[in-house]
Design a protein that fits this description.
Largest sheet: 4 strands, mixed
């Protein structure tokens, strides 16, 4: 069949279906109505359903491609974030390094806690246990003596 003729038949079928939806306040799609109701002639019905199926197949193909691409991006993003995190850990100072670099006017009484506000140590610097001196610190305020790590 000529493409122009089938296009006209499709448009006529589509307008009939939309008029049916408007008149009956139907919530179904034009595709569902074309399959279930006897509004269209045999030729209109077959052309309309064939074109709808063709477009649905194309859209599903695009969706599948996007899902595959999203999974690839997610894996790549995961590895990039992992690499960035490892780099961050390498560059992160330990508590010992930070305490050695602080000035005399900074607090001698300190708090070492986790990001979840769980205190690991609270007190004078001289009483710090050895294992806490070697932990990486990700955020700190030397003036008030607050050091935050990951547990």
């Amino acid at each position: 069949m000529n493409h122009r003729i089938s296009k006209k038949i499709y448009k006529r079928a589509d307008s009939k279906l939309k008029a049916f939806i408007a008149a009956n306040h139907d919530k179904r799609t034009t595709y569902d109505i074309a399959k279930e109701e006897n509004i269209l002639s045999g030729l209109e019905r077959s052309i309309f359903i064939a074109k709808q199926d063709k477009w649905a197949k194309r859209i599903n193909g695009i969706v599948d491609e996007l899902k595959t691409e999203e999974q690839t991006i997610s894996r790549n993003e995961y590895h990039w974030n992992l690499e960035r995190c490892v780099t961050c850990l390498v560059d992160t100072p330990t508590l010992q390094e930070l305490l050695n670099r602080r000035k005399e006017n900074h607090a001698t009484s300190i708090i070492v806690s986790t990001r979840n506000n769980k205190d690991l140590f609270k007190g004078d610097v001289s009483g710090l246990p050895e294992e806490l001196l070697n932990i990486p610190i990700f955020s700190w305020n030397k003036r008030n003596g607050t050091y935050i790590t990951i547990e």
